[in-house]
Amino acid sequence: MTAVTESQEHRFSHGLSFDIECYYQIVAKDFLGRQLAPTEEAERNTEWILETLAETGVKGTFFTLGNIARRFPDLVRRIAAEGHELALHGDEHHYVTRMTPGEFKAEIARGMAAIEDAAGTGVKGHRAPAFSIVNASLWALDVLHDLGFAYDSSIFPIAGRRYGIADAPRRAWRLESGLVEVPLTAVDVRGRAVPAAGGGYVRHFPYAVTRRAIRRCDDEGRPAVTYFHPHEFQEGYPRIGFVEAPLSAGVRLRLLKNALSQGHGRGTAMRRKLRQLLAEFRFEPIGAIAARVQ
């Protein structure tokens, strides 16, 4: 276990989370309308995450898709066996904004069943794919409460183009229903709320930017909520079937743009950044943050 540094001793714990999904399956579905089973890259990169956390003794939350649990049940069992929190990321990575309440309830039920079957444990936390609980889909929080969830971690307190609720609190809060919302991290930059501490915001900026954002949360007395995806730690480029298939020039350009935005080829740098974060800050599962909300 890595020794706690002096800087860690004076700081409280921040939230550590991973959205366990297969990027390549999602691209095939969203860009090409093709069905693809979750690939081994998702399993292999998640195993690297688990090994890295085991080296440091840190526990986190794994928001997992139901299709990952069905494809790699041993991986899901390992997450639970190693003392991490298992939570739900949906079943097939469908966006809440594109579902009716009934469809969302069915999607959640399928995902819960897949994780419970694989790991033999229930789930109490949820994160929507692409943070797709926005003003137009706030009804989803009532559905989650009705299904017995203790907390959600889907809302970005920003005015984003694809996601975000600008006037949402930046600290975890309890809804009237009793469900707790643990928002993603935003910090003020020149008077504007800017997202930080996860995904592309870690990939595309130097490590110092993420460190500064988390220290800002320290100064404000609130935990940051970090999040990562397995493909972000991929070293090199995997060979996926649909990439070799005949595709139009327009589709290939869209795939290239998406690959660049997702940080392909930056896995080595992301592995280094995660190790730096684990060495510099204290972390805990998202459920631990939710449990302290009055």
What does the model show?
A hairpin with a 2-residue loop joins β8 and β9. The chain has 294 residues and is α/β, with parallel strands linked by helices. The protein has 13 helices and 11 strands. The two termini are 32 Å apart.
Keywords:
disordered N terminus, 13 helices, globular, alpha/beta
Short description:
This protein is α/β, with parallel strands linked by helices and 294 residues long. It is 44% helix and 13% strand. α5 (73-81) packs across α6 and α6 (101-119) packs across α7 (139-146).
How are the SSEs ordered, and which strands pair?
Layout: H1 6-9, E1 14-20, H2 23-32, H3 40-56, E2 61-64, H4 66-71, H5 73-81, E3 85-88, H6 101-119, E4 125-126, H7 139-146, E5 151-152, E6 173-174, E7 180-181, E8 186-189, E9 192-195, H8 199-203, H9 207-219, E10 225-228, H10 241-244, H11 249-261, H12 267-280, E11 283-284, H13 286-291
Parallel strand pairs: 1-2, 1-10, 1-11, 2-3, 4-5, 5-7
Antiparallel strand pairs: 6-7, 8-9
